[in-house]
Structure formats: structure tokens, C-alpha cells
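Lab notebook, page 48
Experiment: co-folding of the full assembly
Goal: obtain a model of how the components sit together before planning crosslinking
Operator: M.T.
Materials (sequences as entered):
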Amino acid sequence: MRFVVQRDLLIESIQHVMKAISSRVTIPILTGIKIEASKDGIKLTGSDSDISIESFIPKEEDGIINVEEIETGSIVVQAKYFPDIIRKLPLKTVEIVTDDQFQVTILSGGSEFHLNGQDAVEYPQLPVLHTDNSFELKNDLLKELIRQTVFAVSTVETRPILTGVNMRLENDQLDFVATDSHRLASRKIPLSTENDQLDFDNIVIPGKSLAELNKIIDDNEETIMISVTENQILFQTKNLYFLSRLLDGNYPETSRLIPDQSKTTVLTKTKELLQAIDRASLLAKENRNNVVKLQTKANNQLEISSNTPEVGQVTEEVTTDTIEGEELKISFSAKYMIDALKIIQEDRVKIEFTGAMRPFIIRPMDNEQILQLILPVRTY
Amino acid sequence: MKTWNEIASNQPIATRILTNMIERNRLSHAYLIQGQKGTGKKAVSILLAKSFFCKNQIGSEPCHSCKDCVRIDSGNHPDVHHIAPEGASIKKEQIAHLQKEFTYTGLESNQKVYIITEADKMTTNAANRLLKFLEEPSKKTAAILTTENAHAILDTIRSRCQLIALRPLNTNQLELALIEKGLSKENARLFTVLTNDLQAALALDQDDWFAQARKLMVQLIEMLQTNIEEALLFIQKQWLLHFSDREQLKIGLDMLLYWYKDVMYLHIDENDQLVFLSYRENIEKSAMYWSKQDTTAILYAIMEARRHLEQNVHPTLVMEKLTLQMQR
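Observation: model returned without errors.
Model output:
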């Protein structure tokens, strides 16, 4: 393998793939970066086996030549040394040559490095793109989907399947659901594809992978292509591929958890409620469950209170737009409520209660796409 | 890298069982491979793993040259997980890591294999955790456990695995092979019983540490017979300095064990079986000093010491106790 590449492009690519490389891996080859030269350009791959990131440097882009003198081939270099070497080289271009003994020679100006590489055959084979099973989304929309659901995944491994976000496609609706069995976050978006082949349900993407993906993709109007294969999911922007393994198993049926009628409906300003609960939780923090109490009052007033005998107590009055239905006294975790309210951008939210011992639903007003469900806490 | 054919010369029965299973496509979800040191447990487990992944198998023999085979050999296959003791035991965290791994889909295929070497070294916690997914394996998962002592493994784990017992090596063969390599008959026999493995035996032959260790061992025996008061001092001042870690001390205990076994052989007139041929006179002296009952008691004491050492008892204490027990 041999090629000459613009150094700053190579550095950028290395930075991308390094995000997937972890120092604590069980398979020795994964401590390396795979470099693959084909006639179209250079591809770098990094992986910790849970997620893999591939970054592509095209040979030519908008008439600018990025990579020259390509002889095809591939090699795995040690991720511990390679990035620093490239970053500190003197010239704007780097020449990389390998021989059949897996020796890598890096040339730039007067400096010459010889690194021991490894055979690229040893590197895990990442699945190739299946175009049948893919669809496109806007970057910012995908980021929103992730942000609005991923916080609700479970962090304990007792039920591993709940550490992921369930992705489902039904009646031209793409549905992301996450739950840790105490609360649930769901976001639906309409998705119209011309692709009849598109078929998946019960895809569970690890929450960690999504959080990582959220960091990597830029917040802009560009589109990202999402493809689902048998055991991996691929997110593909122009020159960056992000692959994640999926969680194995069946995601619990969540639609039945959501109550379809309500006894008490509260309509209020998002921000005011959020701030009131945030303040009430200051004293509740000492408490084991972070519990605050909510009570409906006359004249569309809500009272939010928290009482920790050793510390003190707090009462917050919130004026709501309307309160309809039965009177209600309910306790719940302030943290869950804050998490749920934080991701709602709309000014007003609608909260639907069905009794003190039943889960309640939080929705932005006039927006059926977002749904947050929280289980109350039993207090005596 | 070994093939079934190569293993078959030492382990004809185990090989037959396994190759038949592969050919008939009746592989079980969990195997426990038991055999002494050098009997080829690792080779068997690697071959088994290959048979799950290799796409170009001819009969039961994997091709050894496809991507999957090559990466299983080098330990780089993403869907084959190796677990070996970290320090003295296999810890709960290692099994937890494995468990997490199994909640994910495979990286390349849906087949997954994990190999646990020295499975008897699992802590009780780790073993109980493992039990959970030995019991209810997800669709295409295979476990391969290897151990030198299947009885040291939890009954509940053992009963869920198919037990493949490898038979002990024919020591005469190895001894002859070593003599062919230019070792003396005395050394060849000692190394054979200590290692069971040609390469390891040849390495011991070149090892200065081992030569010194053998000298110390003979000194200790002599001291126990003539100068008992000094024995404990000797343990402190010389023995423990030389046998400074657990592995080394285990070799020391093994040598003591074979020495007293020799003493026993002399008592019962099985002179052909002697291991320390070059120290025949010393052994005869020992046999005069310790009676048959004494020797039996000492043999038990040494085995107990070895067990204690594995159970993380402090080496100094183990040796001191043993020395006291070996005094007549």
C-alpha cells in the first residue's frame, strides 16, 4: 500500500475514528486503526467492538486533490502512536508506505518513521451497506430524536435490553422509545419513504452508542442515511460511517403502558413548572427518591411541596392555565420530571393524570409526537 | 496450531467424540474439557471454536487458513471471547463483562463462543453468575470451559456441560523424546513428571533457577533428617527467597511431593518408578528415616499445602506449617 495525503485531512479523520477506540479492549487488534487504500480514496476505521467509526478521505473532492499516488492495500497501525506522529510531522503532506512484512513507513519532509503494523485480515469485518433497508433523516432531527429519548434508558444491567432505545417503524411513523421501567420517553416522527423494502421492528440500539453518535454528528440540515443489517445499525453521513451493534432480545411491549384516558388534566407553562419543581427538589435531594408532592388547588393553582424533616420544607405555588377533572394528590421523582420537562421546547405542556397510583403522561400542547410517562412514587 | 489428526495420536477417544459431533452437526452448547497439564486442552478448545466459525470445513477438520481460523488462532476473532484468570482467580467482573458482551448482537455473525481457561479458578460469585447464562444460552452461543480438575468446579456448572476428559499423556513417550533431545535419563524423568510437555521440559533444562531449586529441595530434606532446629530458619532465609512467587513455590511443592512419592516407592519395592534417580542414596536414607505411615502423612500434608497455596494462604505460613508437619 502506498499513498500521499493532505496531513490536515488525515488528522481530522484520525480524530473521528479515535473516538471509537478504547484502551480497554479484549481483542488485541482493536487497539489499532485500520487504514485501507482503494482507488477512490483512503478509509480509516476504529472500533471498540460495540461501536465502529469509519472515516473516508475521497481521492478528489470539488476538484481538489486530497490523495495522490494511491497503490491499494490495507494495514492496521497502533492507535497509541500513529495520531501523535501524524500531528507533529513537518510538512502539509504525508506519504505512507507499507511493505509485505507489515512495516509502515511514514515520510514527511526530513522525517521518516518506521512503525510495526498488523495484518488487516485480522481486523473485524464490518458489514457492508445494505441499501434495501435504509432511510434518510436530517441531522438535526436525528439529534433531537436521540436527545429526547436517550436520557430515559436504564443504567443498570439487570435488564440489559432496557439500556437501549427501541426503534420501530409502523404506518409511516418512526418511533423511538426508551424506558428504565420507572419512566418512559417516546418520540414519533412521520417518515415517508418510497422504499417498500424497508422493514424492521424491534431494533434496540444501545443508549451509549446513541449518546456517542449524538456527539459526533454536526447539528445541521444535512441528511444522514440509516441502514439496518442483521446485527448492526449504520449511520452514514457524507464521509463518516458510524456503526453500532444492537442489543439482543425482545423489547417489552410499551404501548399498553400508556393510559388512554385521564381523570385530571393540567395545562401549564413548561418553564414555570420546571423551575418550580427544580426549586422544590433542592430540599428533596437529601431524600432517597428525590420525591416531590404535587397537589391540585382551587383557582387553577398547583401546589408543589417537598418535606425532609431533618432539613426543612418547601412549598411552591404554580398558576396554571386550566385544571380539569378530579382533585389530585400525587408524589413523584423530581429528577424524572425535570428530565422530561427539559426536553420539551414548547411553551406549554399538558399533563394527564389517572389517579395517584397510576402513571401520568406529559406532552407538549398540540404536539402528539413527544410523550413522556412517569410512574408515581407511593408515599404514606 | 494443531489439527484433529495431530491431537488424535494423544487423545484418540476425545477426538473421536468431538469429530463425530461436528460431522453430525450435533454440537452441544457447553463443553467442559478436563485434562492434566500438557494434554492439549487449549488445542482442543481452539479447534472446537474453529468448527463453529470456519466455512471451509472438510469433514470435521477446519481449514486453518480462512480469515476466521487465522483470527481464532491469533486471538483476534471478534466473536470468540477468551477468559483466563486475572491474578489468582477469575473474577466476578470478568464474567460481568462477558455477560454484557452477550446482551449485544455478534459483531460479524450471530454465532458466539467463549472459552474459559482454568475454569476451576472462578470465584464462587463468578461461577454463579456464569451459571445463569450457561443455563439459558441465547440462540447461538457455545461455552468451552477447560480445567485440570473438573471436581473443583461447582456441581451446578459441571452438570450443565458436556464433559470431555482428556487422558493423561503417556509419560514414557515424552521421557524418550527428551532423552533423544540429549537430556540425561534422570533429568528427563523429573521434567516429564513436572511438566508433561516437551517444550516446557526443555525450557526447565536450561533454567538456572530450577537447578538451584532442586539443590535447595535436597538440602531441605537433609536438614529435616539431621538438623531439625535449623529447618525453619532455612525456610525463612533461603527457601522463600528463592521460591519467591506462588508459581515457583508450587514447583517446589511438586518436587517435594515426588520426593516423598519416591520414598514410598522404595518402601513398597517399586524401584522402577523412582523419579529422582540421581539421588537414589538420599532417598534410601529418607526411607530409613521416615516410616511408611510418616510418608503417607507427609504426602497428605504436601497436597494440603498445595491446596492452601491456591486458596491464597500466605506462602510463608504454608511453608512453615508444612515444615513442622514434615518433622518426624
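Interpretation: Chain A touches chain B at residues 26-29, 49-50, 121-125, 127, 157, 160-161, 163, 206, 230-232, 245-249 (CB under 8 Å).
Next step: discuss with group before ordering constructs.
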